[in-house]
Design goal:
seven-stranded mixed β-sheet, L-fuculose-1-phosphate Aldolase, two-stranded antiparallel ribbon, alpha+beta, single chain, 53% helix, 2 domains, globular, 9 strands
């Protein structure tokens, strides 16, 4: 037996930990705190830090992980360090599954075991979905490519990162909504998806879409972006219909409050294309850009980003 998980435990995890130890240390984390985050001993952290960071990143690149994908994964894991081990594990597992199903690790795996020259098990298993779900995932892949290819979308990435989600025709629960599992993060002057679109991976955006469909709104997709005064000006410049959430007392106390408020805006005016939320304690202000599908929503985000940058320059 030649399971690909050998690469996870023997190559990917140790070298990811090495890179993360350096990145977290550069942010002022103590060695003991880094050890808790990475689930290793403090002497292990000291060992990672005694080596060059490039030693670990070069080992990851030899696995066949594209540099852009690697940068996005590391940036996401660094952000997740503040959110706890469950979020870091989710990001890592979804990225691992994406690497397997994309075939990016096949060459390295075959170099270890030449007898696997004709093996395509991981790629085949990653494509076993029904027709409607396959169509949703295909559109999401295209939407992600559009966002990644845009030279201006990075200006709209919020602190919590961006995501794009699309629902089935009649979503019953969050498992009927697909999104990018590890979110879309800013990497320099570009954006990069940490994982491939999959169903049941974004509770927040899924809840927004399910709520919207239950009140009769036609939108099937949504992208979350930053919310500031320049964004509002861009929406006005483009003539895009938008509305703002409101709360009975001050602001939202939880993400569920935000979902309810966003859905209420759409219930009052089903033609609203962008809903603005001012956030609250521990909740970043956000704008939700809706579309008939994920490609439509991504197209709107790109239009907004262009107007946003133009206004910033004036």
């Amino acid at each position: 037996m030649r399971p690909p998980e050998e690469m996870l435990y023997e190559v990917l995890l140790p070298n990811l930990r090495g890179v993360l130890a350096h990145r977290l240390r550069s942010l002022g984390y103590s060695q003991s705190r880094i050890a808790r985050i990475l689930n290793v001993t403090q002497p292990s952290v000291s060992g990672y830090l005694s080596e060059r960071e490039s030693k670990f990143s070069e080992a990851l690149l030899r696995l066949g992980v594209p540099k852009e994908d690697l940068d996005a994964l590391i940036d996401s894991l660094v952000r997740d360090a503040e959110l706890g081990p469950a979020r870091m594990t989710e990001t890592l597992v979804t990225a691992w599954r994406q690497l397997l199903s994309s075939g990016k690790l096949c060459s390295y795996h075959r170099s270890l075991y030449p007898e696997l020259a004709e093996c395509d098990v991981c790629v085949r298993l990653g494509s076993l979905v029904d027709a409607e779900k396959a169509s949703v995932l295909q559109r999401l892949e295209r939407a992600v490519q559009m966002l990644e290819s845009s030279p201006v979308v990075h200006h709209l990435v919020p602190e919590v990162s961006m995501n794009v989600a699309e629902a089935l025709r009649d979503p019953a629960d969050t498992n009927d909504v697909a999104a990018v599992p590890g979110r879309i993060v800013r990497v320099g002057m570009t954006v990069r998806a940490v994982g491939r679109p999959a169903f049941g991976t974004s509770r927040h955006l899924a809840s927004v879409l399910i709520g919207a469909r239950r009140v009769g709104v036609r939108w099937s997709a949504v992208v979350n972006v930053r919310n500031d005064e320049s964004l509002v000006r861009a929406l006005r410049e483009l003539g895009m219909r938008h509305g703002a959430t409101s709360y009975a007392s001050g602001g939202p106390g939880s993400e569920d409050d935000v979902v309810a408020a966003v859905v209420e805006v759409l219930r009052r005016d089903p033609e609203v294309e962008v809903v603005l939320d001012g956030g609250g304690p521990g909740l970043e202000p956000a704008a939700y850009v809706f579309g008939t599908d994920s490609i439509d929503a991504a197209s709107k985000v790109i239009r907004i980003a262009r107007a946003y940058v133009a206004l910033k320059g004036t």
